[in-house]
Hints:
The chain has 436 residues and is an alpha/beta fold. It is built from 14 helices and 21 strands.
Amino acid sequence: xxxxxxxxxxxxxxxxxxxxxxxxxxxxxxxxxxxxxxxxxxxxxxxxxxxxxxxxxxxxxxxxxxxxxxxxxxxxxxxxxxxxxxxxxxxxxxxxxxxxxxxxxxxxxxxxxxxxxxxxxxxxxxxxxxxxxxxxxxxxxxxxxxxxxxxxxxxxxxxxxxxxxxxxxxxxxxxxxxxxxxxxxxxxxxxxxxxxxxxxxxxxxxxxxxxxxxxxxxxxxxxxxxxxxxxxxxxxxxxxxxxxxxxxxxxxxxxxxxxxxxxxxxxxxxxxxxxxxxxxxxxxxxxxxxxxxxxxxxxxxxxxxxxxxxxxxxxxxxxxxxxxxxxxxxxxxxxxxxxxxxxxxxxxxxxxxxxxxxxxxxxxxxxxxxxxxxxxxxxxxxxxxxxxxxxxxxxxxxxxxxxxxxxxxxxxxxxxxxxxxxxxxxxxxxxxxxxx
Length: 436
Ligand code: 5AD
Ligand code: SF4
């Protein structure tokens, strides 16, 4: 049987699709990148924002048509939307044969078997233990140069706007032994860079706190000196100086931190239940800049959260100017069902005001990114080459330690190697350079 898998949402979801592909491969399924060839189509979904969820429904329409062509086709919806909407999906969409949440992937072969026997199974039980620790992912869609390794699953933070605790369940860590052995396998497979993943990596905890994230990061850095190591996502409340010192100490740990701030005013941060203040966040930024001067910093920002005043919004703008983020992911607030905000706070910022504030945030970030890239002109960076440039096959692209994309002249032979590149030009999104 051939399967096709489509993935939406975060890096965790990409890693989950690789896990699912591994489970199916072990059950004699073969992957295809053409859904028209597939006997099994899986859509791994994201529920984090309303528009992410809408995209999934568009795809279901397409696969409905495919089912008319291939009568034996099985279509399964997995991941965060599956967890959120559960049996509603089976009721609303006749195309969907089964629904499976993020903690049920081990049982996928059984679910598919049930479909073949005429059932339409639903499996959305969340688990406090399941961390898929012992399973081997299948890196099907990768250049096999950069890859993900999940170190924790779930989230216990309960931010007021966020659906993740409801779709991915409680926080749990994987054993260091299995994490290290997965990285070892990836190294053998030729990977040059791995990203340690978790909703909040700073909460990594093994053996009752004897191994924390700083210890794990150091262990990985020491055992794999020839690999580049990244991680995501950090949480301002929990990110310790110990972690920063490990990043500073090891050359192979990339100098890049994604530290979502969400908002710049204490009133909004409190309503968001983020557990830190503006001052705390700025203190963490100060620590990064002091301990790792060459570090780049990116963030997530939400415009127009419940009760956000113009003054609150100005504080977000002011904080962005103060930090000078190198990059940001910026969103308009959308209510997610069951969250604290959905149950207790009024979504009272008018749509046009949300849009205008988001635009102001994006415009400012564009300027900050432009400035950040401009400051890199003339500098020399070590770049790990990932691919031939899509626009020009005489050029390659890769990333520097700071996670910035750099494009320069080169060919296929450079793929997977590290080269020194001098930055000679830039746009707000990309650096351009030449090998030196
Ligand atoms: N509305 C808008 N943005 C959201 N995010 C999470 N939930 C919401 C929501 N309800 C954003 C946050 C988070 C990123 C993954 O998505 O900025 O960090
Ligand atoms: Fe989307 Fe969040 Fe689920 Fe990732 S964890 S797929 S961002 S809802």
